[in-house]
């Protein structure tokens, strides 16, 4: 596995501190790696915390035609003609922690998303998140991501017998003529 190192993004790394008050559930993920062996032959376990990605979202800054309805529910309007509202929408999801603060994956990890249309007669959605209006109506687009234990830590994997969980947000799309 090579020489272990701390996460490569210092902006999103804070040292573990019992008195820091940042060890809230859902706010920080804590991971450890084995440090170098010292002169006495001891190997230190190094702990670190980084923001825990728990909720996929569609930030308005990167999804300008999306309206946030609740923390993980969004709404958008498309039109078949493209005259009033656009006929396509490119989704650009990201993750937040339990406080709604955006978090970034620590290299080499990346956040992956799966896009699913619950009614392909109203809208289709490509693997890259391009939503296309194909018929009038309303449809729910599910934006999901499988999350393993300690996903933001380089080389992390779920404990034996645990595959992780799926987290999601919903986008309700209304398609007009």
Structure report:
The structure is a single chain. This protein has 177 residues and is an all-beta fold. The protein has one domain (53-176): Immunoglobulin-like (Sandwich). Helices cover 0% and strands 44% of the residues. It contains no helices and 14 strands. The chain has strands at residues 14-15, 28-37, 43-51, 55-57, 66-70, 73-79, 88-90, 94-96, 102-103, 114-117, 123-125, 130-133, 137-147, 165-176. The strands form 4 sheets. The chain has a 5-stranded mixed β-sheet with strand order 5-6-14-13-10, with no helix packed on it. Strands 1-3-2 form a 3-stranded antiparallel β-sheet, with no helix packed on it. A hairpin with a 2-residue loop joins β5 and β6 (73-79). The radius of gyration is 20 Å and the shape is elongated. The model is unreliable at 1-25 and 148-152 (pLDDT under 50).
Keywords:
Immunoglobulin-like; 0% helix; 44% strand; 14 strands; mainly beta; disordered N terminus; 177 residues; three-stranded antiparallel sheet; five-stranded mixed sheet
Residue ranges: pLDDT <50 for 5 or more in a row? 1-25, 148-152
- Radius of gyration based on Cα positions: 20 Å
Q: Please tell me the overall pLDDT.
A: 74
The count of domains is 1
Strand percentage: 35-45%
In helices, the fraction of residues equals: under 10%
Oligomer: single chain
Compact overview of the structure:
This protein has 177 residues and is mainly beta. 0% of the residues lie in helices and 44% in strands. The chain has strands spanning 14-15, 28-37, 43-51, 55-57, 66-70, 73-79, 88-90, 94-96, 102-103, 114-117, 123-125, 130-133, 137-147, 165-176.
């Amino acid at each position: 596995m090579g020489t272990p190192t701390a996460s490569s993004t210092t902006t999103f790394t804070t040292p573990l501190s019992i008195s820091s008050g940042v060890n809230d559930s859902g706010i920080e993920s804590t991971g450890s790696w084995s440090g170098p062996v010292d002169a006495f032959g001891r190997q230190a376990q190094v702990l670190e915390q980084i923001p825990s990605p728990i909720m996929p979202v569609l930030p308005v800054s990167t999804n300008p035609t999306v309206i946030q309805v609740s923390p993980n529910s969004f709404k958008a309007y498309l039109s078949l003609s493209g005259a009033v509202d656009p006929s396509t929408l490119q989704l650009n999801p990201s993750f937040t922690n339990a406080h709604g603060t955006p978090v970034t994956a620590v290299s080499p990890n990346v956040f992956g998303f799966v896009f699913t249309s619950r009614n392909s007669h109203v809208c289709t959605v490509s693997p890259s998140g391009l939503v296309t209006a194909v018929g009038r109506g309303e449809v729910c687009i599910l934006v999901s991501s499988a999350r393993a234990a300690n996903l933001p830590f380089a080389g992390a994997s779920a404990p034996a017998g645990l595959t992780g969980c799926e987290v999601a947000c919903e986008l309700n799309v209304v398609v007009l003529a």
